[in-house]
Prior knowledge:
The chain has helices spanning 3-19, 200-207, 282-285, and strands at residues 29-30, 33-34, 49-58, 66-80, 83-96, 101-104, 108-118, 123-132, 147-157, 171-182, 189-199, 219-230, 239-250, 254-263, 270-281. The strands form 2 sheets. A 12-stranded antiparallel β-barrel has the order 3-4-5-7-8-9-10-11-12-13-14-15. It starts with a helix and ends in an 11-residue tail after the last helix. It is mainly β. It is 10% helix and 50% strand.
Amino acid sequence: MNAKKRGFLIFACMLIALLIPSFSWAHGFAGKRFFPTTFQVNDPFISDEFSILINNMKLPSGPSYGNSTEINIDYSKRILPRFGLEFHEAYQHLTSSPGDANGWENFELGAKWQFFTNEEHEAIASLGTDVEIGGTGAHQLSDSFSEVSPGIFFGKGFPEFPEALKYLRPLAITGDIGPNFPTNGEDKTLTWDFTLQYSIIYLQSFIKDIGLGPPFNHFILVTEFPMQTALGGDAKDQTMGTINPGIVWFTKYMEFGAAAQFPVNSSSGRGVGVLGLIHLFVDDLWPAGIGAPVFR
């Protein structure tokens, strides 16, 4: 697929989703708990949203070591109030010892069903599948084969903590786990990601007002642990990933975030990487139009 056709396909998918009218539905909430979109760990819910994530990191040492900068573009659109489609594309600039490369990575399409929400216990869970479509990206940067990745996604707050531990109630976890199946028959991998979060707005609204005003009262402290373990081959049982401590700031309509990336081992990268997030809550920006599910 050449660049012109590829760009048209991406534009057409997003335009069709944007132009379908319907109604609104809340996103990212379970009871009092708001679960923000984080950097590299998937949301435990489905909503209408648009994100741009910038990722800069030094690649592992080896024959193709260098530096990678990615611009990730994500858009999700609810078809039903609890079921939707997700679109992902990324443009990468790679500086490496064999030579520089630039281009689009493989296009990814996903579906997610939010099947469980418990308001009292601030719990949420979804099932989903992502498909990376092989051969749709630049050949220097992307695989010619596809990859199918089913998974379960979850989020949990802790309103059950007793009064003696009330300052731990703003804590929450999110995560996802699932296998990755390459269509070329090569070795499978297991993705297991999670985040730890501490919500300042939850603390001030439901535990104790500690006197923080704007913009600090809309911070959520986040540390991510995106991991992947090989299930076969020469690298069997080896894990790659990063630890990403960061912070997000949100309002009703948008969210911004920044985080560092620390590789867990030499196979995962070198030095400290950087993540930057710009996120729009389309369902709150246009609740009666493009931000609503197609069918209610």
